[in-house]
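Here is the promised in-class demo. Please do not try to memorize the tokens; focus on the logic of going from shape to residues.
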């Protein structure tokens, strides 16, 4: 599973840096506030602990502590090009994260617990983005409303076919990186794309 927010247009030509989670880094990231902080740094850009506290409705003490934890595990780092005096700015170290689903079957119960916590928070953030869009779609132009999509489909597939579909979806999404016009006056926005391929069992 990947968690890779869309890069700003000016970064699209650069190779994307994706951190592959191991048991240690997974345990370091699997915390709701840390995942929200990292998501904000990726989507909204570098910030101080105080700015992130305001963005997320948290105390600056909490954001400062969890930013240091993110840094310890390699997810966040100082942004040397910003800040004055003792003001500390943070930026995301990687553009995205990749977690191997096999970590959810690790022999260590702490790793399995961290995997579950990560996945539940990841799903929660997806749901929050969807409900936020629904609540604020009137703030967007009709063109944006008509181009957005919230759909679901049911297909009968084998595991191999499902893996092929996943790969083709990812390939299609990746092909759209960097296509936004470079002019600042263009009607562009960061577009979030969620993919869920989930096997289900029928209930009688």
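The designed amino acids, position by position:
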């Amino acid at each position: 599973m990947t968690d890779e927010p869309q890069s700003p247009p000016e970064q699209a030509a650069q190779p994307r840096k994706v951190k592959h989670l191991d048991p240690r880094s997974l345990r370091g990231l699997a915390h709701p506030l840390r995942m929200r902080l990292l998501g904000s740094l990726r989507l909204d850009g570098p910030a101080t602990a105080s700015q992130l506290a305001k963005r997320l409705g948290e105390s600056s003490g909490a954001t400062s502590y969890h930013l240091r934890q993110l840094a310890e595990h390699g997810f966040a780092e100082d942004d040397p090009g910003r800040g004055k005096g003792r003001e500390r700015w943070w930026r995301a170290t990687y553009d995205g994260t990749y977690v191997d689903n096999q970590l959810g079957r690790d022999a260590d119960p702490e790793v399995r617990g961290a995997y579950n916590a990560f996945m539940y928070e990841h799903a929660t953030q997806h749901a929050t983005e969807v409900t936020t869009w629904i609540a604020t779609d009137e703030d967007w132009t009709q063109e944006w409303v008509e181009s957005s999509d919230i759909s679901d489909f049911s297909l009968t597939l084998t595991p191999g076919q499902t893996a092929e579909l996943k790969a083709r979806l990812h390939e299609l999404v990746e092909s759209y990186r960097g296509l936004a016009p470079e002019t600042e006056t263009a009607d562009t926005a960061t577009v979030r794309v969620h993919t869920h391929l989930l096997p289900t069992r029928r209930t009688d």
